[in-house]
Amino acid sequence: MRVEHLTRRYGTATVVDDVSFAVGRSEVLGLLGPNGAGKTTTIEILEGLRVPTAGAVRVLGRDPRRGGRRLRNEVGVVTQAVGTDATLTVAELVRLHASFYRPRRAAEEVIREVGLRDSAAMRVGRLSGGQRRRLDLALALVGFPSVLFLDEPTTGLDPGARRRTWAVIERLRRSGLAIVLTSHYLDEVQRLADRVVVLSRGRVVGEGPPGHLSGPTAPTATISFRLGGPVDLPPGPWESVSRAGGILVVETREPVEAARILLAWAAEARVDLDELEIRQPSLEEEYLRLTSHPRQP
Ligand SMILES: Nc1ncnc2c1ncn2[C@@H]1O[C@H](COP(=O)(O)OP(=O)(O)OP(=O)(O)O)[C@@H](O)[C@H]1O
């Protein structure tokens, strides 16, 4: 999938503004951003449901609006709250969807894959919210997709079911799918995504692997250790130095250099670095940093 200088305007509002990224085979791209950032618009353009104002998108080398039946067969979509006939059973609905595809996967195999085997005979209207999300995933998988769009795939799932869905997504990635994942659960994105694109007000404000997102300001790592008594730190690339209880907390944008200086200083000054911890920012911290300082248009 390729998105090049994509722009979408509604009247005078630019809701997607010069966005570019690519997603390859066996790759999960996390598309993040606050409400209204332009994620759904971008994805719906990739799905061929909306038209770009400027720029271009390609899915499996084709324009999604002109790819026709062949392209639709290769694209799986898990959106929120798809309306269906609630009186059908899980197995009937998956078989019905499978009938639209050629080649297609066996309904039973897909139902097993998403962990719904015990509910195959249950009517769709009686499923719990979490079972419904897993059914949505099954419906996206019946047609052997090469590309998969996952919009909030684990909303409403209990922790065990979330992990089972993560395992399914990891298997799909290993089998060669290109996957775009949107989720407000940043632990999920940190766990699953190879790369992340953060949108804010329609623009890309950060991108890269989770833990190493580029952006207008470099991420801040934290080094902390327990203090025996008062200390004088040597000069170093510290952004800030603070105390919380008996713990000294140093923030730095150069964790390797900072750690080297601290260790040399501690050895010379005979300071025990008890409970020493060096922590890279979590995806959540990176996300908040990037989206609370959006680049002005
Ligand atoms: N058909 C439309 N006409 C006018 N404005 C629209 C239309 N569709 C979307 N927008 C606006 O475009 C902006 C981006 O919306 P979009 O749904 O892409 O955001 P999002 O990142 O998916 O948000 P969320 O996390 O809430 O789903 C919003 O301000 C929205 O109001």
TrEMBL record:
Query: Does the record's keyword annotation contain Nucleotide-binding?
Result: yes
Intracellular or extracellular location(s): Cell membrane
Entry keyword Nucleotide-binding: yes
The membrane topology of this protein is: Peripheral membrane protein
Give the residues annotated as coiled coil.
Answer: none
Which of UniProt's keywords are assigned here? Antibiotic resistance, ATP-binding, Nucleotide-binding, Transport
One MF term in GO for this entry?
A: ATP binding
What protein name is recorded for this chain?
A: ATP-binding cassette domain-containing protein
Q: Which organism is it from?
A: Acidiferrimicrobium australe
Taxonomy, top ranks, is: Bacteria, Bacillati, Actinomycetota, Acidimicrobiia, Acidimicrobiales
